[in-house]
């Protein structure tokens, strides 16, 4: 499992972006994790799935709401990573009104989740292998802080916790 001091895995995620105003979309577009994190401070949070109750009601909205404060604390980008396809992540971004505040990155084949060891097996519930719920502060591709949630919990991967760590 990934830990503080480790580099993010060199895998490719997918991002689906909409062009404001005309309803057209761009993508899905590949996002090479190593390249995208290079030279930046990134707040990364992972969750089991788009449109799921806690993820939609608390996790994503918290990061959208704390965007300005995270930027002031030195965070360049906020990434939401989930084991869904780019089209679902794009629709969820629209639903959550993330705009340019949170990059909704699709880990469709769970490559990122598997490479980091942050997987959650939900096959018994018909959802397959997913990402566990976590947050991390990443500087220049290296993990500075890592907050792992216990199964079924939402206590340490929230935006407030990561914001306090970014300020610290």
From TrEMBL:
One of its GO terms (biological process) is hydrogen peroxide catabolic process. It is an enzyme of class 1 (oxidoreductase). GO terms for molecular function: thioredoxin peroxidase activity. Keywords: Antioxidant, Oxidoreductase, Peroxidase, Redox-active center. Its EC number is 1.11.1.27. It catalyses: a hydroperoxide + 2 glutathione = an alcohol + glutathione disulfide + H2O. InterPro entries: PRX5-like, Redoxin, Thioredoxin-like_sf, Thioredoxin_domain. It holds the Pfam family Redoxin. One of its GO terms (cellular component) is cytoplasm. Residues 2-168 form the Thioredoxin domain. The active site is at residue 55. Belongs to the peroxiredoxin family. Prx5 subfamily. Thiol-specific peroxidase that catalyzes the reduction of hydrogen peroxide and organic hydroperoxides to water and alcohols, respectively. Plays a role in cell protection against oxidative stress by detoxifying peroxides. This is Glutathione-dependent peroxiredoxin. It comes from Ramlibacter algicola.
């Amino acid at each position: 499992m990934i830990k503080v001091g480790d580099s993010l895995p060199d895998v490719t995620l997918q991002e689906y972006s909409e062009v404001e105003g005309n309803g057209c979309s761009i993508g899905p577009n590949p996002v090479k994790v190593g390249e995208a994190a290079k030279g930046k401070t990134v707040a990364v949070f992972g969750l089991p799935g788009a449109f799921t109750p806690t993820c939609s009601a608390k996790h994503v909205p918290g990061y959208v709401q704390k965007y300005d404060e995270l930027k002031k604390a030195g965070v360049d980008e906020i990434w939401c990573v989930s084991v869904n396809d780019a089209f679902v992540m794009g629709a969820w971004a629209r639903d959550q009104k993330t705009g340019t505040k949170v990059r909704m990155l699709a880990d469709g084949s769970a490559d990122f989740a598997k490479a980091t060891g942050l997987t959650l097996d939900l096959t018994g519930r018909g959802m397959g292998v997913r990402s566990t719920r976590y947050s991390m502060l990443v500087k220049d591709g290296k993990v500075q802080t890592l907050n792992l949630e216990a199964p079924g919990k939402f206590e340490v991967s929230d935006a407030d916790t990561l914001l306090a760590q970014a300020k610290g």
